[in-house]
Amino acid sequence: MLPQVVHSTENAGLLPRDWFDIPAGTPVSAAMGDLQCSVKSTLEDMETDAVINLSTSAQIAFVKQEGFQPEYSQPSDLRSSTEFFPYIEGRYIAVAASLTGGNALAAFVRMIQLWCVELGCNVPQSKIWSAALAAGMKEGETPTLDINPTIFGERHCPDQKGTVSNINQGNIGLGQVTRSVCRGIIANLASMMTPEMLKEGGIKRIVGSGACLIRNQVLQREIQELYKIPVTFVEEGNACIGAAIAVADRYYPCEMPNRRVLRASSCLEKL
């Protein structure tokens, strides 16, 4: 009574009857996870690329080398900040998923707005965002103010709180604090998946995506400074496109590994 278990992207069966314009007999692929599909839609070269997505929260992931098998942990073991999930072709992806991302910046902007209201002047958040990010970009020196903006905790450490240290009268300007918050977001992610881990995994480039990251040049600069490898920024990865690409790669492999968008569109047209 139960269906046969198959790997992701393999055929789970055939469409039994016509479904709108899709004819009966069309192969139906086994499902993939949302995370795996999002990664698939963003990666150009899964051997040398890592993906950072930064929207409300933040994630960094890369595909582990062929043959890698994760070690099983016991319930009593301390939870690691890096987890491993099955990927296509029998591979695994290493993922560090942080609860600290654009939500921390939004809390910072909201705090400034509430201070302004209490002082008797109502400033829209859009103006605070533009002024804060513009001021942050003008800060050329590495900030001396240390902000760890983990005000929402982390999955591997739910009780973790945010901290601010090394405050002095010369590093509390709007630009300095804004850049310190942005640097703290990326530094927290880099503590969960370190630059050394990427280097050991053969990663030579980071592909950055996500609404918060694409709009924030301060965050972009901090990724480049903290990870110290080339970074490319693209539009946010789309899980449904990743699922289509994964199936298209199986039926219509294309010899354009460095042309992700063109490869996706040309393969999807064949489907």
| Topology order in helix (H) and strand (E) letters | EEHEEEEHHEEHHEHHEHH
Spatial sequence of strands, sheet with the most strands: 5-6-4-3-9-10
Which percent bin holds the helix content? 25-40%
- Count all strands and give the number: 10
- Report the portion of residues in β strands: 15-25%
Span between termini: 31 Å
Rg result: 22 Å
Instruction: State the low-pLDDT regions, or none.
Output: 255-271
The main sheet comes to: 6 strands, mixed
Describe the global form. Answer: elongated
Number of separate helices: 9
- Average per-residue pLDDT, rounded, comes to 88
In terms of structural class, how would the helical and strand content be classed?
A: alpha+beta
Description:
- This protein has 271 residues and is an alpha+beta fold.
- It is 39% helix and 16% strand.
- It has helices at 34-42, 102-118, 125-138, 174-192, 195-200, 211-215, 217-227, 239-251, 260-270, and strands spanning 11-14, 27-29, 49-54, 58-63, 83-86, 92-98, 146-148, 163-165, 205-209, 231-233.
- It has a 6-stranded mixed sheet with strand order 5-6-4-3-9-10, sandwiched between helices. Strands 1-2 form a two-stranded antiparallel sheet.
- A hairpin with a 5-residue loop joins strand 5 and strand 6 (92-98).
- Helix 2 (102-118) crosses helix 3 (125-138) and helix 3 (125-138) packs across helix 4.
- The two termini are 31 Å apart.
Features:
two-stranded antiparallel ribbon; alpha+beta; 6-stranded mixed sheet; 10 strands; elongated; 271 residues
Short description:
This protein is α+β, with helices and mostly antiparallel strands and 271 residues long.
